[in-house]
Amino acid sequence: MNYPTGYMKMLPPTEIFPSPRPYLWLARNSQGVRVGAQMGRAFLLVLTIFVLSAAATELYPAAKTSPEPSRDSIIGIVTQIQRADYEGDRAALKRLHDKLTPIPEDNKLASRVLYWRGFALWRRAINGFNESPTPEDLEEDLALAVTDFKDAIARDPAFVEPKIGAGSSLGYLMYLHKKDPTRVQELFQQSSPLLKDAMATAPDNPRLLWVLGPIRWSSPPERGGGQEKAIETYNKGLEAVHNQKRDASDPLEPSWGEPELLMSLAWSNLNRTAPDLNAAEHDAQAALKLVPYWHYVRDILMPQIRAAQAKALLPA
């Protein structure tokens, strides 16, 4: 930084001579009479204070505090996140995640904001698994989603939804690290308590049952898994949805699940050992009736079902 030079003009008309001692200036007036070291020290003190103040302002500008988002604005962003998820718009999900800031002071509201931040990145990663080539940022999305979900739990430990989201996100991280048994075990040790807690607290939660379905699908029958067990889990989730009260609810409280359960049933009926293609089409169409713009079901799953149906009509 260049020091200000105009401060010499603040002294009476003098000739300024550097002192042999560092940072001390001595002055003589026009008759050459020595003014004294005291004036030099006083000037040095003023100069030093000014320079340090200027440096502090430049290096440490005053913090700019953003106002908390209003509840209405939060609801608007959450609505956009859910649509972007179904549309498979990963760029929008990242942008909307970042818009949910700053985190409110109120713990309950903060836990919901953090949940939807985690949801945006969780679903961004899930959508990424359907892209080809597979994006390289899936692990980062899932790790950040876990952080947001855990922060939501810290704000409201009784809130079960972030436990479900974190458990699922950790499961996807386990899949990404499937060739590293040590890392898989570390992730399992984080995921298992979260899902066990959710199962104990809300065993009929449709979103929990949707998350448990793939676990049942990939687990052997002797461990309570298998294809039929997964399909049973999805159907139990749909039954729970239909039994829930249809009263107007808080938009910040998660209520999604029915379209996802129908989609998973369609996928399961398509990919089971003995495919049921009619059931797969029926479930996929039911999901699209609820969410007509769902990219994955409309543009990926339905064409797979159609192709399987066409293949089944070919002569053996």
List the helices and strands and how they pair.
Elements: E1 15-18, E2 25-28, H1 37-59, H2 71-87, H3 90-99, H4 107-129, H5 138-155, H6 161-176, H7 181-201, H8 206-218, H9 227-243, H10 258-271, H11 277-290, H12 295-313
Helix pairs in contact: 2-3, 2-4, 3-4, 4-5, 4-6, 5-6, 6-7, 6-8, 8-9, 8-10, 9-10, 10-11, 10-12, 11-12
Strand tally, please?
2
Overall SS class? mainly alpha
**Radius of gyration, rounded?**
32 Å
Largest sheet: 2 strands, antiparallel
Tell me the span between the first and last alpha carbons. 83 Å
- Assign an overall shape: globular
The tally of helices reads 12
What is the H/E string?
EEHHHHHHHHHHHH
Helix amount? 55-70%
For the largest beta sheet, what order do the strands appear in spatially?
1-2
The fold-level CATH name of the largest domain is: Serine Threonine Protein Phosphatase 5, Tetratricopeptide repeat
CATH domain class of the largest domain: Mainly Alpha
CATH homologous superfamily designation of the largest domain: Tetratricopeptide repeat domain
* Total count of domains: 2
Beta-strand portion reads under 5%
* Unreliable parts: 1-37, 46-64
At CATH's second level, what is the architecture of the largest domain?
A: Alpha Horseshoe
Give average pLDDT, whole number: 85
Outline the structure in words.
It is globular, with a radius of gyration of 32 Å. It has a two-stranded antiparallel ribbon. α5 (138-155) runs antiparallel to α6 (161-176). It has two domains: 6-59, no CATH class; 72-295, Serine Threonine Protein Phosphatase 5, Tetratricopeptide repeat (Alpha Horseshoe). 65% of the residues lie in helices and 3% in strands. With 316 residues, it is mostly helical.
